[in-house]
Every structure is written in structure tokens, then in C-alpha cells.
Write a structure and sequence with these properties.
alpha+beta; five-stranded mixed sheet; three-stranded antiparallel sheet; 2 helices; disordered N terminus
Length: about 150
């Protein structure tokens, strides 16, 4: 299952609308909620290739220009079921640069942890993004502390 989750207030409404209109059953969202964007679908394919064969892949895409060329580059925060089993998940944070009509993988971003990535802002040389992380008294299941990460970009 692939789910593309965007930092958008309208996503919940769009998901409900699409699920209502889809008589076959629940669907995964790829690209924009009301139409597939090939460039962003290609990004999903790159993410799948990078993380390998996994289950329950959830891809959070954020777009903006970090290279200064005026084109949307991408930050991806992907979650998937742990290969070791159990009830945990793994996180992969990746940078992609806009090239031609698609994207090129640049690198993994280490030391970014948490859930519910949101509020990504792009500027030349860096991206800021907020995730919810574990606080000092939080159970492992229930992070509650927002943390803003600054990711240096090429």
C-alpha cells in the first residue's frame, strides 16, 4: 500500500471524497489528490527503489527549491513496516533534486526521527521540517513533543 500524505488542510476532505467516489474500495493517493502528477509519481517510484521491497509504505512528500534554480526539489519522509517484524516501523528521510522532467536522488538524511512530518519550508541551502518526537515522559507509542529539524542541502 502506498499513501502520499501532503501537508495540506484539504487532504482529509480530499481523501473522504475520493474514498466515497471509489466504489472498488479504499485507494492510495499518489500525486495530487485530484489528479496524478507524473513527476511526483516518478518520485514515489524512486523512493520505492531506494527503500526496497517493504510493506505498508507511507510517503510524505514536500516540495520547494533548495538548490536555487527556481524548480521544486523534494524532501521525502517515508515510513514502512520494520523488516524485522513486530509492531515497529522504520523511517527513511531523503533529498531529491529536480532534473529534467523528474527527480534525482541526492542522499539520505541521518538523525531525523519522529512522526507526522509537517510545515516544511525550503530556502537555498536548507530545509526546515517539524516532526513529533518522544518527550521525557512519553510512552514509545505516543510521542508528543514537536521538534523542528534543519536539514542542510547542497
Amino acid at each position: 500500500m502506498i499513501v502520499d500524505v501532503r501537508a495540506s488542510r484539504n487532504l482529509h476532505c480530499a481523501c473522504l471524497f475520493l474514498m466515497f467516489c471509489n466504489s472498488v474500495g479504499p485507494i492510495g493517493l499518489v500525486g495530487s489528490a485530484f489528479g496524478q502528477n507524473n513527476k511526483r509519481a516518478d518520485l514515489i517510484a524512486l523512493v520505492k527503489k531506494k527503500v526496497g521491497r517493504v510493506t505498508d509504505l507511507q510517503v510524505n512528500q514536500f516540495f520547494g527549491d533548495f538548490s536555487g534554480d527556481g524548480r521544486d526539489d523534494a524532501l521525502v519522509v517515508a515510513y514502512y513496516a520494520s523488516r524485522g517484524g513486530g509492531n515497529s516501523f522504520e523511517i527513511a528521510v531523503m533529498l531529491f533534486e529536480a532534473v529534467g522532467s523528474g527527480f534525482r536522488y541526492l542522499r539520505d538524511v541521518p538523525n531525523v526521527y519522529g512522526e507526522s512530518p509537517r510545515g516544511a519550508t525550503f530556502q537555498r541551502g536548507q530545509i526546515k521540517v517539524t516532526l513529533t518526537t518522544l518527550g521525557p515522559n512519553d510512552a514509545r507509542c505516543c510521542p508528543s513533543v514537536p521538534k523542528e529539524y534543519t536539514i542542510r542541502t547542497p
